[in-house]
Structure formats: C-alpha cells, structure tokens
Amino acid sequence: MNDYGLRGVLERIDPPDEEVERSARRHLDRLTKPIGSLGFLEEIAAMYCRMTGTDAPKLGKKRIYTFAADHGVVDEGVTCYSKEVTRQMVLNMVAGGAGVNVLSKHTGVEAVVVDIGVDYDFPETPGLIGKKVRHGTDNMAKGPAMSEAEALRAVEVGIELAQCAYQDGVTLLGTGEMGIGNTTPSSALLAALLPCDVEEATGRGAGIGDAMLRHKIDVIGRALRVNRARLTDPLGALAAVGGLEIAGIVGLCIGGAAHRIPVVVDGFISTAGALVACKTCERVKEYLFFSHLSQERGHALLLERVGARPILDLGMRLGEGTGAALAMGIVEGAVKVYNQMATFEGAGVTGERRE
User: Fold this and answer.
1) How confident is the model over 173-203, as pLDDT tens digits?
2) Which fold would CATH assign to domain 4-56+339-347?
3) What is the dotted CATH code of the domain comprising 61-333?
4) Residue 265 is inside which H or E element, if any?
5) Per-residue pLDDT tens for 210-242?
6) Residue 320: active-site member
C-alpha cells in the first residue's frame, strides 16, 4: 500500500502531555467540592486537557461527520433491510429528520453527512459533502471488499475532513455512520484484529432473528477465510473485510489525533473504525472518547480489549452519531465545570478537609 501520506500524518501524532494532565488534576482538586466527587466527569475534563495539550482548555465548535456507504455483502442476506435504505436515510439526514439531527441540535453540535461510498449519485445538496471513493464495496464473502488503494483513499478523506475541522475552529469531533449491513464488516474487523471468535463479535445489527444471525456468522466466517492472506495488517484487513464509511472514520480518528482535536467515537461500527486506527498507531487512542456502550454484541468486548470506558450506557444501537452527539454534550459540560467552577481560594471557602 502506498501510505507515504498517511505515514506523514501518523508521525505528527504526539504523545499526550502528562504534565498538563497532572496540572489539570491539581486544579480539579482545588474546585469547591469534595475531591473526586464529580466522578468520571473529572476524568473527562483531565483527559480533554491532556488531549488538547493545555491546562487552560478552550471550547469551540463541535462537529459530527456521519460517513455513508453501501456494502456488497448485503447480497448475502445478512440484514433485513435493502441497500436502498442507505440512500433514503442520507436524504433524511440532509433534511434534518434523523436521530443524529435531533440529538446534535439538542447538544449544539453541527451534523455533517459525507457520501464516501453510497451506491447512488446524489445531486449537489446543501449539508451533504461528496467524497465518494466508489459506489459501495464488493461482496467480502467472495473476495476483498475493496482494493488497498481505495481503502487508503477513504482513510485520507477522513484525515482531510479533520484538517478542515481544525481550520474551522472545531475543538471536538464526533464520528457517525450510515450504511445498511455495516455491522457485518465491523464484526469481521473485530474478529480479525482483536482477534476473537466470530460468534463473540457478531450481533443482531438492525434486529435480525436467530436464523439470520446464524447465517450472518457463517458469512463473516467465509469472508475471513477467503481473505485470510489479506488480514496481516490493519489497513489490509480494512480493505479486505471493511467498509468505506469505516475507513473514513479511521481517517477522522487519525486526523483528529494529529491536530490534537479530541474525537468522540459513536457506537459499534465507529469503534471498529477506531480499532483500525489504534492498531495502525497506538497513540491515536489517547485522543479518543468512547461515547456509549452499544447493545451490539461485540461492542463490550471491543471496549474491554482497547481499555476504554464508555461515557454513557443507554441501550442504544442506532449509530449515525447519535451516541456521540449526546456524549459531546457531557464532554463540554466537564470542560465547563473545569473552567467555570470556583476554587476554594477564589470563593473564600475555608476549612480543613478531614480524612
């Protein structure tokens, strides 16, 4: 794979500033509250400082990129929806009618849809960024989903969008996706890269029954066997059994890390993309928040293996960026507590703390 450009971006990802984090934690301990009484909210604030490299963090724009693409493996009957729904849902998102639109508006997040691989040619539409690499992937049960060059191009789309966000003053990014059938490649990536058994990695997606779940597991097993020789590195696995929207998320995670913009990862499919990014460069994980625990079967295992604590657990499994939108509001709240809450000294609150 010609990854010279990608390699250059990876080399720009610095380790987080541990001294900044220590300074941030000292500040949190001076706020007018018992030490640690805001729990994980304090951890989030300290993480945000570490990621952004300053103990005087700033809040700017918040933006979610929802990457949309189709999947050839849908031809195997792994989902109860047809791929035309991808196109229909993209139009719904652009019109503001999807879950991610509602929750993004609620938390003050800009929601942007990216056509990175839908099997349909959209006219120029406000709110839709056209970055199509190809019209969906091939059937991964019969061969590679895409070429390595196409996978790299899709990753570079995500990196480019992170760069655009940096230039626009975005200080918190979120991932989202739309693609009928995309829990199947996500489960395949999980099985290949963790690694784990296909059964552990595979869930019901949009709500399939027992018979279709068994069939889905069989299809993923076939895809992994057919593409065994291509699963030797993260980007090779992404090309073989991944998806274009997953590749875009990989790039967004990498690009965010390179620009020290924290990235809030949505649910199962987005976390599969984050896994590829972290396997490509371990330092990427230090710039990621994981928004929520999905109901999708493999998500808890995936979060456990990458050592990540989700911010929320609401039983969600919609995708689109819905979990990221909610969690971004919590990250913003944590930073506001850090910046706006009075210290003991500033508020004139005295008294000895007793153990």
Assistant:
1) 999 999 999 999 999 999 999 999 999 999 9
2) 1.10.1610
3) 3.40.50.10210
4) strand 263-265
5) 999 999 999 999 999 999 999 999 999 999 999
6) yes
